[in-house]
Amino acid sequence: MKPLRTRAGLSVRFDPRALVVGGLLCAAVLAASVVLIGTGDFEIPAADVIRTLLGNGEPAHQFIINDLRLPRVLVGLLVGAALGLSGAIFQSISRNPLGSPDIIGFGQGSAVGALTVIVLFQGSARDVALGSIAGGLLTGAVIYALAWRQGVHGYRLVLVGIGAAAVLTALNGYLLTKAHIVDAARAVVWLTGSLNGRDWEQVWPLLWLCAVLVPLVLSRARALRMLEMGDDVAYALGVPVERTRLLLMAAAVLLTAAATAAAGPVSFVALTAPQLARRLTRSPGPNLLPAALLGGTLLVTADLAAQRLFGADTLPVGVLTGLLGGVYLLWLLVTERKAGRI
């Protein structure tokens, strides 16, 4: 960390490596997004994509890019950023690398809410999104209440969440067995996690929610770093522990539920993005912004790989993130066991 003093006497500390990593991630996600926009049955060169995004493209390119492909990429960026940020929050609060929303039940809770709307009420896409958010919030409240005992201990939160995830996964299976064949097929497609067919109706709600929650979470970054040191240390440093923890958990649950509502339960992005961000920046603390940038980069890159390696729109992005994330989880468990932490 290096101090930077202004003429007015203000002092700001910054990490040069974190700034470089953040800049490289921004460049990477922009490059991947441009390539992804140009990918499809009708290939568009990167130069034409940039020209069209700046408003100087051909009419055919404007329709393909602005109406069909740009919303998909924006949903991918926002979903990845929301999952990366929520994963960083949960891992910092629990002080556990396994404290990810798709490990401790919040993603499964959102899926239960969405499946309930699909299977029992045959709801529209908007109803499914609202059901996903309601399911995520209800799951968050239940897990927080069950994990509470004179405060919320990190390992207790993870253990309660893993148990809740198992119950919710079984409930998802039960709902699928009771569904009609058409509703079951629709539910399975949604449960896979995909960016196919996403349009501006998914972009705007997620964009507004991120515009409110991301600055709120970033403004609590210092308090979250204090929480990583333990409740007693945070109290001594003047942090209102329970109020801060509850606020950040509510924001993380909302981000997870909104991301799940927009793209389905895309697995393991929330687990891997914060861990990789810490390894890249080598900086202490939650690394909230690098985690969000890396989450967006991972999801867009995974969607690009799914289209380039397997043909356009043939492999949902959730399948690829699940495969890669499962390998990462096994590696994480092995390293944590060798370190004696599990």
Task: Indicate the topology.
Elements: E1 2-5, E2 11-14, H1 16-37, H2 46-53, H3 59-94, H4 106-121, H5 125-147, H6 154-178, H7 181-192, H8 200-219, H9 221-228, H10 231-236, H11 241-263, H12 269-281, H13 288-310, H14 317-338
Antiparallel strand pairs: 1-2
Helix pairs in contact: 1-3, 1-13, 2-3, 3-8, 3-9, 3-11, 3-12, 3-13, 4-5, 4-6, 4-7, 4-11, 5-6, 5-11, 8-11, 12-13
Quick synopsis:
The protein contains 14 helices and two strands; from the N terminus they run ββαααααααααααααα. It is mainly α and 342 residues long.
Describe, in plain words, how this protein is organized in 3D:
With 342 residues, this protein is an all-alpha fold. It has a single domain, classed as ABC transporter involved in vitamin B12 uptake, BtuC (Orthogonal Bundle), CATH 1.10.3470.10. 75% of the residues lie in helices and 2% in strands. It has 14 helices and two strands, in the order E-E-H-H-H-H-H-H-H-H-H-H-H-H-H-H. It has helices spanning 16-37, 46-53, 59-94, 106-121, 125-147, 154-178, 181-192, 200-219, 221-228, 231-236, 241-263, 269-281, 288-310, 317-338; strands spanning 2-5, 11-14. It has a two-stranded antiparallel ribbon with strand order 1-2. Helix 3 crosses helix 13 (288-310), helix 4 packs parallel to helix 6 (154-178) and helix 8 (200-219) runs antiparallel to helix 11. The longest helix has 36 residues, at 59-94. The model has no long low-confidence stretch (mean pLDDT 81).
